Each structure stands twice: as structure tokens, then as C-alpha cells.
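Weekend entry, working from home. Most of the wet-lab plans are on hold until the incubator is repaired, so I used the time to fold the two sequences that have been sitting in the queue since the last round of cloning. Logging both here for the record. First:
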Amino acid sequence: MKNRKKIHFTCKYNAKIRFKIKDIIHMSLTGLEAFLSDVSEKMPNSLNIIIDHLNSLFENREDYQISISNDYKVIKNSPQLINHSINAILSLLNFPKYQPKSINEEIEVDITDVIHSFNHFEYSFIKSLEVIMTHEEAMKYYQNFVNKLTQARRDPKKYIDNLQDLVKNFKEFSEKWYDLEAVIEIIDKGTLIYKVKRCRWAEDLKEFRPKIGYTLMCHQDFERTKNFNPKFVLTRNHTIMEGYEYCDFCYHDMRFKKKVNHPSEDFWKNFN
């Protein structure tokens, strides 16, 4: 392919991102609402057990005396869980060090704190499932849940036309979050190579077993690829989250391919 160009993404560990604290709370509670809605649909008799365990996980946190208006359908019936969840989110975020005038004020927040808050709050969902099923069953349930959630977000109006636009999408995200050290290149009309060499999401979850981090952050990548365009297919054999040296993302635009071939190990080792 002519005019091939590698683009490098930088992982900045002192980076900050502008957020309203209210929005961080809302995003996390929206995830909790989706999770409990799924439990309510699939295991209605276990919903209260899950809620009780989440309360027990969250209750021993400082009470920041913060509330937000919401129109949630499931968690609205458990105001105690909403309060405990908000306190847990803020605690994980290291909220006291920011001291905003209002949770509606847009402020600079350390990206490491935002990542930590999102990751660990979501991990509690898996922990709550383990009250009613084995760890392996909980992991499988959660993988199915995030796949379903990702599919529900599929919107033809937001499809990306080509791999060049996909690169732009990744670049914009990287320049906002500075969460990955990576190199990306379109090597032919139907193939985008994306090698991740450092990942802040994986580093935040390194205290957990690799499969937990993979389930929380990586498992849904295959379905998420379809959200960019149903004609895109992702292949990947390695992730940092699972303990490998790098992640080997390869995106294929099947409008220009008859079959999918993932690059060799030697290719990835030399792609920098």
C-alpha cells in the first residue's frame, strides 16, 4: 500500500482529563443499572441477594453527602444502594483531593483515578455474582452481559466508513486519555495493525487474576469492533491484560478480503 504511515500513541502517566464529577458518577451508575436490569431479567429471584451483597461491598465508605437526580428503573427502588454506590465511586476516585465547588463543575481529574474508579466499581458486579454462583460461572455471566450491552449500543448512524476513519477514532481517544503506548498502521486496504505496548487499564488491574481484567476490559472488544462497522472483524491472540508483552489487534475490513489471516508472531515482534 502506498503512503503507509505508522502513528505512535503515547502513555502519559501524569495526564489529566476534564470531567464533571457528576458525569463520572452517572456513567458508573448507568453501568450498575444495566447490570441489575440484566439480573432482574435473567435471575429475578436473585436480584435482592445481589443488591444486598453490593450494599455490603460499598457500605464501609466515607459518606460524602452527595446525591444526584436520576431516572433509573431498577436501582431507584434501592436508595441505600444508590447512596452507597456514589460513596464507593467517589472513594475510588480519590474525591477528597479535588474538592470541586460543585459536582457539576468541570475540573481536571487524574486519568489514573478515573480509570481506577471505573475498573474497581465494575469489578464489584462480578463479586456480587459470586454469592449465587461459582467464580467461573460469574465470569461467563459477565462476559455474556457485556457482549449484550455492547450489541445494544450498535447504531448504523454511527458506523465508520473505512479503516482510515477508524485510525482517526483511535487517535482522538488516545489524545484525550493518554492511556496506551501503541503503534498503529494500515498495511493494506483491508488491514489495520494496532500493537499496544503499555496499557494503563491493565496496570490498574494487575492485582487481579488476568482473566478478571480481560473479562472487565478486553472481552467485549470483538463485539465493539462491529459497532464501528459490521464489516470489520477483529483478530487478536495476545493481550497485556492476560500477561503478554503486548496486545496484537488486527482489524480486517471484509469488503476487501476473502478470508482473515492474523499476522505471524515474527511480524508482531518486529512491528514497532
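Second, folded right after the first finished:
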Amino acid sequence: MDREELRIAPPPEKIGKTNFLSYLIDTIYKSYHNCDITHHLKKYKIGFTLAEVLITLGIIGVVAAMTMPSLIHKFQNKVLETQYKKAVSIVSQAILKAKADYGLDNFAQYCTYYPYASDSGKPYDNAAECYENLYKSLLNYEGITSIYNNTPTRVIRLNDDIKTYNNKAKLTISSLAGLGTPLYYTNRMPDGSYIGFSIVEGNFLITIDTNGAKKPNKLGHDIFFFKLDKQKDMITYLSEPKNYTDEEIANGNYDSEWTANRAGNPCNITSSQGGNGIGCSYYASMNKCPSDSSKTYFECLP
């Protein structure tokens, strides 16, 4: 374009703010419809096909099926651990209260006092009194003080389905002899747990079922055996377990079924003993796994 054309060319049309905005929108709109992108967007719709959605849901289902049982098992074990700690704490505090109410230096020795020959068949002189006051202390610790609620809620569990630690055998009261008394003749607490106590074989025995009638009802899972230490006057495990193989038990010289079932106070993932699990309070108190030192007690429940 030469100078003359530039000189005589009409000036450009002035575009106001409103007209400019309309012009800009119109330009963009025309450009969009004329470009290849529009053609491809119309040809290929954005989204997932039904097959793709079903495949994705199938993968999610497989992953969930693989991980959920493990997550549920860990959650259940964590619940059992929390219930165990709560129950042991309640019993420990109740013993201290009963001891203070009595004004005794040693509650365990007072309750197990027995001035007779071991084969006399006579009851322990102070047993009934100790049971009553310990039960009242347990209820008072739970915040229950009325006379009506201070009456023991007895529970007899002779027909309950109670299993050993590794679920290999079903317990009976005869399979444990006297040790089974506080387990099968127990007391229901306000929170639903069962706590039983009995003086047997010179020991003040205590059993705790941390969730009462609810499952799993297995030794070492929600059911634990304790005794009162006569020297320290506090709740403790029966003894450190000594785990025997099934062959050692079969070849052992035991004079009764219950002595074989209770031999070593077992807590063993492989044992078939009828009392397997009575010694698990030792490991639970130490918070260590009987079969794997790298895990805590409740992490490795079978």
C-alpha cells in the first residue's frame, strides 16, 4: 500500500467498550466453531463406557476383598486390647478399695487364711466376706451404690461354648478342675463383662471375661485367669507359661485329665491341651506375643 492509499483510506471505526466486548466474544465463538477441536469434540464424547466402569468396580471389589478381613481382624483385636486394659484396671482399683475398707495390710493373705489341714475339706474362713466386699468394691468403682444393685448378679456358664487359645478344644469345668470355678460361676458387671473370683488350692483366683457373653469367648482373647500375689497383694498372672508339645503331654505321667490340661499353664499357638490359654495373662501383662517377639500380644492373636 503506497502513501496515497494510506492518506485517502477511511479512518478505522471506533469501537466502544460494549461493542468491543461483543466483537471479542463473537470472534472467539467463530474461531471455536471453525477449528478442528470442535470436530474432534463432536466426534468423541468425553466420559466412561459401561464396560470401563464395571471393570473398575471389579478391581475395587477384589482389592477390598483382599484387605477388609485383615483390617477387620486388626480392629477386633484392638477392641479386645482396650477391653482387657479396662477390666484389669477396674479389678486392680477394686482390690485397693476393698483393702482400704477392711483396713488390712494384706488383702490376699487375709482372704486365703486357712488354719486347717489341706485335706480337711473345710472352707476358707474369710472367703465369703472377701467375695462380698470385693464385689461391692467393683460395683462402687462402676458408680453403682444402691442397695439393690449391690446384690451380686450371678452367672452360671456351664453350657457356654468356651474355646482354648487356638480354638482347638472346647473347655469344660472338669477339664480345669478347681481353676474353672471362677470362670463358670461368675458375676456380670454393669458394662456387660464377667468377673469371677474363688479361693482354690490356696490362691485367690480371678477370671475376667472382658466382654461377657459376647464372642469370641476364647482363653487369651477375651477370657483371662489371674491370681492375687500374696506378697505384693496385687493382681498378677498365674505363672510364666511352660509350653509343652502334644507329644510331651501324651507321654507325660499325669494322674488326671485336668493335670495334663493345665500342665505348664499353657499359652501356645499349636498346643492341643484342654487348658491352653490359662497362662496367657502372663503374655498379655507383658504385652508380648507368645510366638513372635516382633509383635505385641494382641497383634498376634490366632
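Plan for Monday: verify the second prediction. The first strand starts at residue 154 and ends at 156.
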